[in-house]
């Protein structure tokens, strides 16, 4: 009987898998962390040694208060500057003193350069004046404070210092996705280290830190139980749920609870994606997530993220990372058809995160998981249909 079932499953896969490719971008068209058209032209010019389009783009995002897009551009351009120091040096030589866009990129680059170094704490301490300079050069810009939050996580600063940085960030942009993600990563790292010794509790976007209705069946931590609560992960989930509750419809913040789940299912933020990381996440079953949060809280996070994803067109690059996160979370929950729907919506836009938590080859892992999801969906489909009645083999 076991052999017959295995044979029937294989037959279903063979029959249905090719059909399930409909709506999926071919493998050779999938690109990792592809920039949008606006940023793509800037990077093309930068690759030719011209920094002027970069300066113009960052100035435009500042003048137009496009803080979310400015944050994304800063991250991409800092990565580019790290690999092309000559290009960045020429810009610095020509820029006016106190240029706020150059100051921002200097700060982002300094924190980025510290990440892979064994002596990264020294580098992060040295980056402090650059981060302060970026914040001072553009007082209304939340992006320097996102960089400051990343620095706080890298240094493992106490919660009291994090709270001060966080209050500055939300004072400038209460619903800024990049700052919330950076804050969540800080809280996740602290939850993982179980270090509640310095008191306090995480703030929501209104400074209260209280959770919304999601997960209401769980006991909320008493005041002072910063990173403990009913589960030691609760502070991260309360923070994420509160931000999602306050967010506008379609905001990427509505996927923050899903990020919180995945942050605890995978390796610690900032840890190398080596063999241990791959084996841990690859072996995670849907039941294991209930050790992190209640089933109701997990389902609420997933459904909220699905609803957010549905507000964007298929292949839209803006929600691409959130959709990649959601696809992996749905796989961990065993929701194969929903995961396949997200892969269709992702289109050609694979993102390094979250797949770097699973493999050193994120693009290859994305394609492998996408193929595996198709196989799982095909394995659950009826082998034959007669009229409107599905007839399984052996009936």
From TrEMBL:
Residues 193-223 are annotated as: Disordered. This is DUF4034 domain-containing protein. It comes from Streptomyces xinghaiensis.
